[in-house]
Amino acid sequence: MDVNGKAAIVTGGASGLGRATAEALVKAGAKVTLLDRNFALAEATAAAIGALAAECDVSDAASAAAAIAKARDAHGPARVCINCAGIGGSVRIVDRKGQPMDLDHFRKVIEVNLVGTFNTLRLAAADMSSLEPVNDDGLKGVIVNTASVAGYEGQIGQAAYTASKGGIIGLTIQSARDLSAHGVRVCTIAPGIMLTPLLMGLPQDTLDLLGSQVPFPKRTGDATEYASLAMEIVRNDYLNGEVIRLDGAIRMGPR
Ligand SMILES: NC(=O)c1ccc[n+]([C@@H]2O[C@H](COP(=O)([O-])OP(=O)(O)OC[C@H]3O[C@@H](n4cnc5c(N)ncnc54)[C@H](O)[C@@H]3O)[C@@H](O)[C@H]2O)c1
Predict the structure, then answer these.
(1) Which numbered atom of ligand 1 lies nearest the CA of 149?
(2) Ligand 1 site, residue 83, Cβ cutoff 6 A
(3) Which atom of ligand 1 is nearest to the CA of 60?
(4) How many angstroms does the Cα of residue 12 sit away from the middle of ligand 1?
(5) Which one of 11, 15, 90, 109 would you pick to mutate in the ligand 1 pocket, going by the greatest count of ligand atoms within 8 A of its CB?
(6) Hey, what long-range contacts does 95-101 have (CB within 8 A, 24 or more apart)?
(7) Which of 117, 200, 207, 249 is 20–30 Å from 137 (CA)?
(8) 248 CB less than 6 Å from ligand 1?
(9) Active site residue 161
């Protein structure tokens, strides 16, 4: 789908992978709204790249509905939804003292990463279904989710994160099938180690070590490489129901 002149929403668009994708969408002529919990940063990013900002907690039904309504009022219903909002966190299932993980930690990560992704997916898909198709296939819109290689090879301490990303991986083919009647395609990107603000605070030798674990190219991924793949998923009308790893062939070890 050609995004020129079309409305797009990007969750987590204030920072990192979401920001890079929002920037690519704007450059391609889309009318973009950044949906982010960090509204101050979303506003600053929006001003820098030529987008609109909407405050949004993706895990909250009312908050996401209000943010999508703000985007719709400004640009019309979105044809493109990029789901990048997410959180991390490292907690072992049983700690060194034999104490079980606080269940609230597990719930929180699932709420933001998995429930949050599904929340905006369902709202965006409903908006897309109200639109006229853009081509003879009946295509109305495209949704791109963000999982992680941790959804396949979760490392020690990543129980909640791995379960949340594994959920997004499983949801991909299911939601593509579910939304096929509405002309909506769904794909997911599973990134490896990407250099975003999440990692930029680490010392250079730690970044070098992380990069050296990648078979080829021996470096961390760049947010523009994520954005490039997200744009290709949007552009290529035959991509649907697929999870694509973007990881330089890395397969994570246990730690
Ligand atoms: N950077 C990596 O190496 C990497 C690897 C694999 C997967 N991912 C995934 O990519 C996505 C983007 O990560 P990033 O590296 O760009 O991180 P980031 O921290 O730079 O950006 C994440 C954005 O999501 C927003 N956010 C967090 N919780 C939110 C909520 N409840 N509602 C709305 N917005 C919320 C944050 O404010 C932030 O702007 C995440 O889902 C992450 O799990 C990142």
Answers:
(1) 6
(2) no
(3) 31
(4) 6
(5) 15
(6) 101/159, 101/160
(7) 117
(8) no
(9) yes
Phi-psi region of 199 (alpha: psi -120 to 50; beta: other; left: phi over 0): alpha
End-to-end CA distance of the chain: 40
CATH topology classification for 7-195+223-246: Rossmann fold (3.40.50)
- In this predicted model, what pLDDT tens digit does every residue of 128-165 receive, in sequence order? 999 999 999 999 999 999 999 999 999 999 999 999 99
Domain ranges in the chain are 7-195+223-246
CA 254 from centroid of its chain's CA atoms: 24
Q: Tens place of pLDDT for every residue, the chain, 255 residues?
A: 999 999 999 999 999 999 999 999 999 999 999 999 999 999 999 999 999 999 999 999 999 999 999 999 999 999 999 999 999 989 999 999 999 999 999 999 999 999 999 999 999 999 999 999 999 999 999 999 999 999 999 999 999 999 999 999 999 999 999 999 999 999 999 999 999 997 887 888 888 888 999 999 999 999 999 999 999 999 999 999 999 999 999 999 998
Evaluate if pTM is beyond 0.70: yes
Ligand 1 site-directed mutation target among 194, 226, 252, most atoms within 8 Å of CB: 194
Q: How far is the CA of 137 from the centre of ligand 1 (A)?
A: 33
